[in-house]
Amino acid sequence: MDDYPLLNLFWTMLLIFLWVLWFFLLFKILTDIFRSQDMGGWGKAGWTIFVVILPFLGILVYLIARGKGMAERDMKSAADADAAFKAYVRDAATTSGTGGSASELAALADLKERGAITEAEFQQAKQKLLAA
Question: What burial class does residue 104 get, using C-beta atoms within 10 Å of its C-beta: 0-12 exposed, 13-18 middle, 19+ buried?
Fold first, then answer.
Protein backbone atom coordinates (compact mmCIF):
# COMPACT_ATOMS: atom_id res chain seq x y z
CA MET A 1 0.00 0.00 0.00
CA ASP A 2 2.99 2.31 0.06
CA ASP A 3 2.77 2.97 -3.67
CA TYR A 4 -0.98 3.82 -3.67
CA PRO A 5 -1.42 7.43 -2.47
CA LEU A 6 -4.45 8.61 -0.54
CA LEU A 7 -5.66 10.75 -3.46
CA ASN A 8 -5.77 7.66 -5.68
CA LEU A 9 -7.85 5.91 -3.03
CA PHE A 10 -10.36 8.77 -3.04
CA TRP A 11 -10.41 8.76 -6.84
CA THR A 12 -11.08 5.00 -6.88
CA MET A 13 -13.88 5.38 -4.34
CA LEU A 14 -15.45 8.16 -6.44
CA LEU A 15 -15.32 6.03 -9.58
CA ILE A 16 -16.91 3.05 -7.79
CA PHE A 17 -19.64 5.34 -6.41
CA LEU A 18 -20.36 6.75 -9.88
CA TRP A 19 -20.40 3.25 -11.37
CA VAL A 20 -22.93 2.04 -8.77
CA LEU A 21 -24.99 5.22 -9.27
CA TRP A 22 -25.04 4.64 -13.02
CA PHE A 23 -26.31 1.06 -12.55
CA PHE A 24 -28.95 2.29 -10.13
CA LEU A 25 -30.14 4.86 -12.67
CA LEU A 26 -30.08 2.28 -15.45
CA PHE A 27 -32.34 -0.14 -13.57
CA LYS A 28 -34.57 2.67 -12.31
CA ILE A 29 -35.06 4.00 -15.84
CA LEU A 30 -35.66 0.56 -17.36
CA THR A 31 -38.27 -0.08 -14.66
CA ASP A 32 -39.89 3.29 -15.38
CA ILE A 33 -39.94 2.63 -19.12
CA PHE A 34 -41.90 -0.60 -18.70
CA ARG A 35 -44.13 0.79 -15.93
CA SER A 36 -45.14 3.84 -17.94
CA GLN A 37 -48.70 3.56 -19.23
CA ASP A 38 -48.61 6.71 -21.35
CA MET A 39 -46.11 5.19 -23.77
CA GLY A 40 -46.85 2.58 -26.41
CA GLY A 41 -44.87 -0.53 -27.26
CA TRP A 42 -42.75 1.14 -29.93
CA GLY A 43 -41.89 4.00 -27.59
CA LYS A 44 -40.83 1.55 -24.90
CA ALA A 45 -38.76 -0.41 -27.39
CA GLY A 46 -37.12 2.77 -28.69
CA TRP A 47 -36.23 4.08 -25.25
CA THR A 48 -34.93 0.66 -24.19
CA ILE A 49 -32.70 0.38 -27.25
CA PHE A 50 -31.50 3.97 -26.77
CA VAL A 51 -30.67 3.38 -23.09
CA VAL A 52 -28.94 0.04 -23.78
CA ILE A 53 -27.00 0.99 -26.93
CA LEU A 54 -25.92 4.49 -25.82
CA PRO A 55 -26.19 4.11 -22.06
CA PHE A 56 -24.75 7.39 -20.76
CA LEU A 57 -26.43 9.57 -23.36
CA GLY A 58 -29.65 7.54 -23.20
CA ILE A 59 -29.94 7.89 -19.42
CA LEU A 60 -29.25 11.62 -19.51
CA VAL A 61 -31.72 12.25 -22.33
CA TYR A 62 -34.38 10.12 -20.60
CA LEU A 63 -33.94 12.02 -17.33
CA ILE A 64 -34.22 15.34 -19.15
CA ALA A 65 -37.18 14.34 -21.33
CA ARG A 66 -39.22 12.24 -18.90
CA GLY A 67 -37.80 13.00 -15.43
CA LYS A 68 -40.87 14.91 -14.20
CA GLY A 69 -43.23 12.13 -15.28
CA MET A 70 -40.92 9.63 -13.65
CA ALA A 71 -41.31 11.37 -10.28
CA GLU A 72 -45.09 11.57 -10.73
CA ARG A 73 -45.31 7.86 -11.52
CA ASP A 74 -43.22 7.07 -8.41
CA MET A 75 -45.51 9.18 -6.21
CA LYS A 76 -48.65 7.59 -7.71
CA SER A 77 -47.21 4.11 -7.19
CA ALA A 78 -46.37 4.90 -3.55
CA ALA A 79 -49.84 6.36 -2.94
CA ASP A 80 -51.50 3.29 -4.51
CA ALA A 81 -49.40 0.95 -2.38
CA ASP A 82 -50.23 2.96 0.76
CA ALA A 83 -53.96 2.90 -0.03
CA ALA A 84 -53.86 -0.84 -0.68
CA PHE A 85 -52.03 -1.45 2.60
CA LYS A 86 -54.52 0.66 4.57
CA ALA A 87 -57.44 -1.14 2.93
CA TYR A 88 -55.86 -4.49 3.80
CA VAL A 89 -55.36 -3.46 7.44
CA ARG A 90 -58.95 -2.19 7.69
CA ASP A 91 -60.24 -5.39 6.14
CA ALA A 92 -58.08 -7.58 8.37
CA ALA A 93 -59.15 -5.69 11.49
CA THR A 94 -62.87 -5.96 10.77
CA THR A 95 -63.02 -9.42 9.21
CA SER A 96 -60.30 -11.33 10.97
CA GLY A 97 -60.45 -15.11 11.18
CA THR A 98 -62.84 -14.90 14.14
CA GLY A 99 -65.56 -13.09 12.21
CA GLY A 100 -64.85 -9.47 13.04
CA SER A 101 -63.79 -9.94 16.66
CA ALA A 102 -62.07 -6.55 16.81
CA SER A 103 -65.23 -4.60 16.05
CA GLU A 104 -67.35 -6.87 18.27
CA LEU A 105 -64.88 -6.47 21.13
CA ALA A 106 -65.01 -2.69 20.72
CA ALA A 107 -68.82 -2.84 20.83
CA LEU A 108 -68.66 -4.93 24.02
CA ALA A 109 -66.28 -2.44 25.63
CA ASP A 110 -68.66 0.37 24.69
CA LEU A 111 -71.58 -1.48 26.27
CA LYS A 112 -69.56 -2.00 29.44
CA GLU A 113 -68.57 1.69 29.60
CA ARG A 114 -72.21 2.78 29.22
CA GLY A 115 -73.22 0.39 32.01
CA ALA A 116 -75.40 -1.81 29.80
CA ILE A 117 -73.46 -4.92 30.88
CA THR A 118 -71.51 -5.74 34.03
CA GLU A 119 -67.81 -6.53 34.23
CA ALA A 120 -68.58 -10.25 34.64
CA GLU A 121 -70.82 -10.25 31.57
CA PHE A 122 -68.15 -8.38 29.64
CA GLN A 123 -65.46 -10.91 30.59
CA GLN A 124 -67.74 -13.84 29.73
CA ALA A 125 -68.68 -12.39 26.33
CA LYS A 126 -65.02 -11.51 25.67
CA GLN A 127 -63.89 -15.08 26.41
CA LYS A 128 -66.58 -16.49 24.15
CA LEU A 129 -65.67 -14.04 21.40
CA LEU A 130 -61.95 -14.79 21.59
CA ALA A 131 -62.51 -18.54 21.76
CA ALA A 132 -64.54 -18.55 18.53
Answer: middle
